[in-house]
Specification:
586 residues, alpha+beta, Beta-Lactamase, seven-stranded antiparallel β-sheet, 31% helix, 23% strand
């Protein structure tokens, strides 16, 4: 029988584990070779117990809550723990044989030994600039199967007792357009794991091995109990919601449905995605561990954002993902542009959950989009892959406007700075600014999207895109208006101007070519005519809302008075009255 640990000791251990993971992550971000790791921070770190259950994760990318246990489960199936030794390290990036969201997300897992006994695993998952495949960046929007998506590694041993397998490195290097960056980032991941190993050993030195190992189960139980208690205070009921992707990248113009039905009874909550479309021919599919992680992420968001991230979250929810669907595809269905689909999952989850807890409803955000520009630099004499990850505007919610130019939902990376991009890649950024009137109007408006326009400076560049919400906009809620859709336009302002679909691969870019990415604005919350006219004026003064849109969308007339702009209170009241819209505060 496992002895109970006193609450103070348990809390100290829990906080210490979280601190270890944060230190691992800081190590990874500071030693990363690529802009993906150093600047965008497209990576997560975690500690797991010896059975592969999540013990602690510092949330940057919430979906990795599901990916880490799935990767470790695949590792233990291929390499039993009895065969592992101190100093070992393993790689896996196979979405089906492991749990990586897609092949560019390489997981590094190391067994942690304390006094010659396996006590857990340290791990990280980090996006790689290129792991082969037909297009630079390895994310082809037209992939028809996983074999079109670059090098896939099932769980393989990379280090044996601290010695790297150079043959593995040679295979990875031979399959990448940017071998130095990829290997450098992988080595940085190993280094971050070694930090985790040392720090966990120090915690065991302080509290004792048995106490720390026993705390894992108690922390899982504590988190599960905490979430169940919070759920129990919600009203019982059922709700459903759906969102649509523009298309899957192959069957252009054919929207793809993600549907969830939620049943809440007592302290249990059940998510059923059986109403979602069948798996797609294009790379819009997602694997079940990510879907369950999205459900857990939504629950944390609506309950207590400071809740410990561990296995207990997953125990508190039930998820159904029917086989052969977009949320549980059969191998070898392509998955590399999974993230726009996961944003549709998140938006549907928040819509449905908002029907059960109405005071926490939120409008849709922008989703995310990534650009990939690759070629061979004439000045550097080697291949490059420029990868950038963007958000847009977040959705409005009760009492709070959306955030401008941010990451939304489970995507918490950063936008790489203009200076970094221009110093490391043969491109010039011509514009980077918010888009006025892009936010969905509402009593609490959405956040604004932004535009980022580029000039290609080198020859023979190849451009790919994975995006979302170019045709189907972020939805407003409670009477709020939809946000402005996004776009990606090549050769803007010329006779060759062309708007690309949300998933596109391998567009050729000659030197001097321009392209422009416009990100969506978030949806609005509540009727726009209920927005305080002074807040509308503030938005006009900030350049967020035009004078015409203030009148058109909000019924607020702004006029010049001397050197400044003011609200014409009498004309505004008459206009709103004429429109017959309830102006009482919600």
């Amino acid at each position: 029988m496992t002895p109970s640990i006193d609450p103070i000791t348990l809390e100290v251990i829990s906080t210490s584990l979280a601190g270890v993971v944060q230190e691992m992550q800081s190590s990874l971000f500071r030693t990363g070779y690529s802009t993906i790791i150093r600047e965008t921070q497209d990576a997560s770190c975690a500690l797991l117990d010896r059975d592969g259950r999540l013990v602690a994760q510092h949330i940057v990318l919430a979906l990795h809550m599901g990916a880490f246990p799935a990767c470790t489960s695949g590792l233990l199936a291929a390499h039993p723990s009895a065969t592992m030794q101190p100093g070992d390290a393993f790689l896996v990036n196979h979405p089906y044989a492991g749990g990586s969201p897609h092949a560019p997300d390489m997981a590094v897992l190391t067994p942690i030994f304390y006094r010659n006994e396996l006590v857990g695993f340290a791990g990280s998952i980090a996006h790689k600039s290129d792991i082969g495949g037909p297009v630079p960046g390895s994310c082809s929007g037209q992939a028809r199967e996983t074999f079109n998506e670059g090098l896939h590694l099932p769980p393989v041993q990379y280090h044996r007792q601290g010695i790297a397998n150079r043959d593995i490195e040679a295979i990875i290097a031979a399959n990448s357009r940017t071998p130095d960056l990829v290997l450098g980032d992988i080595r940085g991941q190993v280094g971050a794991a070694r930090v985790g190993e040392r720090r966990l050993a120090e915690i065991m030195d302080k509290f004792g091995q048995h106490v720390v190992l026993s705390s894992f189960d108690q922390l899982h139980e504590q988190t599960e109990g905490l979430l169940r208690t919070m759920i129990s205070h919600w009203s019982d009921g059922e709700a459903e919601a759906e969102r649509f992707l523009d298309d899957d990248g192959v069957d252009l113009g054919k929207p793809v449905r993600v549907h969830v039905r939620i049943t809440k009874r007592g302290d249990r909550i059940h998510f059923d995605f059986s109403g979602s479309d069948e798996q797609t021919r294009g790379p819009a599919n997602v694997r079940p561990p990510l879907v369950k992680a999205a459900c857990a992420f939504a629950m944390v968001t609506l309950t207590d954002a400071s809740m410990p991230i561990n296995e207990g979250l997953m125990r508190s929810i039930d998820v159904v993902t029917p086989e052969g669907s977009i949320v549980n595809p059969h191998f070898p269905a392509p998955v590399n542009t999974y993230n726009p689909t996961m944003h549709a999952v998140a938006d549907a989850l928040f819509d449905a959950l908002g029907q059960i807890v109405p005071d926490r409803r939120t409008a849709d955000g922008s989703g995310t989009r990534s650009i990939f520009l690759g070629g061979r630099s004439t000045s550097a004499g080697k291949s490059y892959v420029q990868y950038e990850l963007f958000g847009g505007g977040s959705g409005g919610r009760s009492g709070v406007d959306g955030v401008n130019g941010t990451m939304v939902n489970h995507s918490n990376g950063k936008i790489a700075s203009v200076e970094i991009i221009e110093s490391e890649f043969p491109t010039r950024i011509l514009r980077f600014e918010l888009i006025p009137d892009s936010a969905g109007a509402g009593e609490f408006r959405g956040g604004l999207g932004f535009v980022r326009e580029y000039e290609v400076l080198d020859y023979d560049a190849r451009f790919s895109l994975r995006s979302t919400k170019h045709k189907i906009p972020p939805r407003g809620v409670q009477g709020g208006r939809d946000g402005r859709p996004g776009a990606c336009i090549v050769h803007p302002g010329t006779d060759h101007e062309q708007a690309l679909p949300t998933r596109y691969a391998d567009y050729p870019m000659a030197a001097g070519s321009h392209f422009r990415v416009e990100t969506p604005g978030g949806g609005g919350y509540g009727p726009a005519a209920r927005r305080d006219p002074q807040h509308v004026l503030d938005d006009v003064l900030d350049g967020y809302v035009s004078i015409d849109a203030a009148e058109r969308d909000y019924g607020v007339i702004v006029r010049q008075q001397g050197e400044t702009l003011i609200v014409d209170q009498s004309r505004t009241a008459l206009l709103r009255q004429a429109r017959g819209t309830d102006q009482k505060a919600s």
